[in-house]
Amino acid sequence: DLADAGACRAEVLEHRPDAARLPAKRASYLKRLLCGMAKTPDWMRYQWFTGMHCHRAGDLERAERYLREAVDARHPDFPVETLNAHLLLAEVCAVKGDAEAAGRVLQGALALFDDVRHDFEVRINTRLEPTLRANLDAIARGDLGAVRAYRFMS
Predict the structure, then answer these.
(1) How far apart are CA 109 and CA 116, in angstroms?
(2) Among positive and negative, which fits the CA dihedral 100, 101, 103, 104?
(3) Dihedral class, residue 97 (left if φ above 0, else alpha if ψ from -120 to 50, else beta)
(4) How many CB atoms neighbour CB 72 within 10 A?
(5) Contact predicate 55/32, CB 8 Å
(6) Among 53, 54, 135, 149, who pairs with 62 as Cys (CB 3.0-4.6 Å)?
(7) What is the pLDDT of residues 21-40, one digit of tens each?
(8) For residue 44, what is the DSSP state?
(9) What share of the chain is helix, strand, coil (3-state, %, to 5)?
(10) Is the pLDDT confidence value at 6 over 60?
(11) Closest CA to 54 of 27, 77, 81, 76
């Protein structure tokens, strides 16, 4: 009731996920992403989210495959997802110890950022450019451990 809106009190919500269900949830999410990708392979958001999902699960080989697909596509409808894929792919390359590949990915991201910086979603994501530049600086210093994508929501 809108008349009671001023009388609302703060509620504390606690989320206690069942850790035993996490593997099944991850498998279900991955299955849905792969199914979506099979139906619409040119919808590059699936590659981005699948790569991020595989990264979170610790499967860096699969993550690299899907992130590279998203990066290489440079889909004009998904500039933020493509830039995020660059960041996460650079992190994967850095974890694997490949500074040259990480640097190439980040240079590509910076060039793309310059092309799409006026896109609304890119403009409001204030973490993109500083993270790109910090990662490039880390590579220049030889500090691959500092090459990190910002953390994305689950």
Answers:
(1) 10
(2) positive
(3) left
(4) 14
(5) no
(6) 54
(7) 888 888 999 999 999 999 99
(8) T
(9) 70, 0, 30
(10) no
(11) 27
- The amino acid at residue 114 is D
* CB proximity list for 116: less than 8 A, separation 6 or greater: 79, 83, 122
Q: Cα(84)–Cα(132) distance, rounded to whole angstroms? A: 10
Range list of β-strands (E), 60-110: none
Name the one residue in this structure whose structure tokens are 């099944």. 24
Two tokens, residue 116: 């799409």
Strands (E), 18-85: none
pTM score: 0.84
- The stretch 72-97 carries a mean pLDDT of 95
Model confidence over 104-144: pLDDT tens digits?
999 999 999 999 999 999 999 999 999 999 999 999 999 99
Secondary structure class of 142 (helix, strand, coil): coil
